[in-house]
């Protein structure tokens, strides 16, 4: 079998075109969706991601502020900034780029963001609402993955979904969201025994470990749907996923590439969540 490649990049372009129209319609009603991104320090990878977010917002006519703070910013200064953005009527989405420097308590910063503006979906209130199956801001990478599966008409209900990785921003929430869609979900991680036996049972395999070529064809069940969430920058500057794409292509029924797969969908869902926040804050449709 040769898998169908799911290009998130192309789907993202279609969705963003629709969002551009929506932003322009909102603007006519006096609502100007605004995403404010805070970055602390000068990690080149983080800077490149946030610039990507800024570019994407501007392309659909959305206002975006990038606040670049020095590495030396104190925990309290960051909390004060988040608090002022919470109260700023012109700001609808607040994203604090992770990871933060060691001296800043990440959890406290995330909890300081108003759940009404939590477009990342990382606030414990958003997570709790997701766990309860209630309407909320869903984290962008998992939401992007579900959108890709739905777009391809891939059935989720009753399928065995195996999630490799248990991070707070990808692994844990994607498992929960697949469970909410009636998949049977197994989480695997670095301490899992006989992990290959479990991987080979996966109808849907979500790989989010951050290790180049961690998954190869012999770990994949024939006909599985393989979603590669890895974002690994190699020494030569190229970006690669967690799955050995060439070999997996022969085994899977669908597979996402890196780049041009999940990444562009993540940013698209961030734009989606920001539009949703703006509508909710201003009570418009
Ligand atoms: N608070 C917070 N929210 C995040 O959503 C968040 C974060 N922190 N920290 C870092 C990760 C990483 N992340 C990516 C998003 C898009 C691409 C993306 O669009 N990648 C392109 C390629 C970009 C390139 O070539 O550099 C692609 O896969 O085609 C990658 C990585 C969001 N993150």
From TrEMBL:
One of its GO terms (molecular function) is methylenetetrahydrofolate dehydrogenase (NADP+) activity. InterPro entries: Aminoacid_DH-like_N_sf, NAD(P)-bd_dom_sf, THF_DH/CycHdrlase, THF_DH/CycHdrlase_cat_dom, THF_DH/CycHdrlase_NAD-bd_dom. One of its GO terms (biological process) is purine nucleotide biosynthetic process. It comes from the Bacteria. NADP(+) binds at residues 165-167, 231. GO terms for cellular component: cytosol. Gene3D superfamilies: Leucine Dehydrogenase, chain A, domain 1 (3.40.50.10860), NAD(P)-binding Rossmann-like Domain (3.40.50.720). Residues 6-120 form the Tetrahydrofolate dehydrogenase/cyclohydrolase catalytic domain. Transmembrane segments: none annotated. It holds the Pfam family THF_DHG_CYH_C. It catalyses: (6R)-5,10-methylene-5,6,7,8-tetrahydrofolate + NADP(+) = (6R)-5,10-methenyltetrahydrofolate + NADPH; (6R)-5,10-methenyltetrahydrofolate + H2O = (6R)-10-formyltetrahydrofolate + H(+). Residues 139-280 form the Tetrahydrofolate dehydrogenase/cyclohydrolase NAD(P)-binding domain. Keywords: Amino-acid biosynthesis, Histidine biosynthesis, Hydrolase, Methionine biosynthesis, Multifunctional enzyme, NADP, One-carbon metabolism, Oxidoreductase, Purine biosynthesis. The keyword Hydrolase applies. Catalyzes the oxidation of 5,10-methylenetetrahydrofolate to 5,10-methenyltetrahydrofolate and then the hydrolysis of 5,10-methenyltetrahydrofolate to 10-formyltetrahydrofolate. Belongs to the tetrahydrofolate dehydrogenase/cyclohydrolase family. Homodimer. This is Bifunctional protein FolD. The gene is folD.
């Amino acid at each position: 079998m040769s898998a169908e490649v799911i290009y998130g990049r192309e789907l993202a372009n279609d969705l963003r075109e629709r969002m551009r129209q929506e932003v322009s319609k909102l603007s006519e009603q006096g609502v100007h969706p605004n995403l404010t991104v805070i970055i602390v320090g000068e990690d080149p990878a983080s800077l490149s991601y946030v610039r990507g977010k800024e570019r994407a917002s501007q392309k659909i006519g959305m206002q975006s502020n990038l606040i670049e703070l020095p590495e030396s910013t104190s925990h309290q200064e960051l909390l004060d900034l988040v608090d002022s953005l919470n109260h700023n009527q012109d700001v609808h989405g607040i994203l604090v780029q992770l990871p933060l420097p060691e001296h800043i308590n990440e959890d406290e910063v995330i909890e300081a963001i108003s759940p009404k503006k939590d477009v990342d979906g990382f606030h414990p209130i958003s997570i709790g609402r997701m766990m309860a199956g209630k309407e909320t801001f869903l984290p962008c990478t998992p939401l992007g993955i579900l959108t890709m599966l739905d777009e391809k008409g891939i059935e989720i209900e009753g399928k065995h979904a195996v999630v490799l990785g248990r991070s707070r921003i990808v692994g844990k929430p994607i498992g929960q969201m697949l469970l909410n869609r009636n998949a049977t979900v197994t989480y695997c991680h670095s301490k899992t025994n006989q992990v290959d036996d479990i991987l080979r049972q996966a109808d849907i395999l979500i790989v989010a470990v951050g290790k180049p070529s961690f998954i190869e064809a012999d770990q994949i069940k024939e006909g599985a749907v393989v979603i590669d969430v890895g974002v690994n920058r190699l020494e030569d500057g190229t970006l690669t996923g967690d799955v050995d794409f060439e070999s997996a292509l022969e085994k899977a029924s669908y597979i996402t590439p890196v780049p041009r797969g999940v990444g562009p969908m993540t940013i698209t869902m961030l734009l989606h969540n920001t539009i949703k926040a703006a509508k909710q804050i201003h009570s418009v449709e």
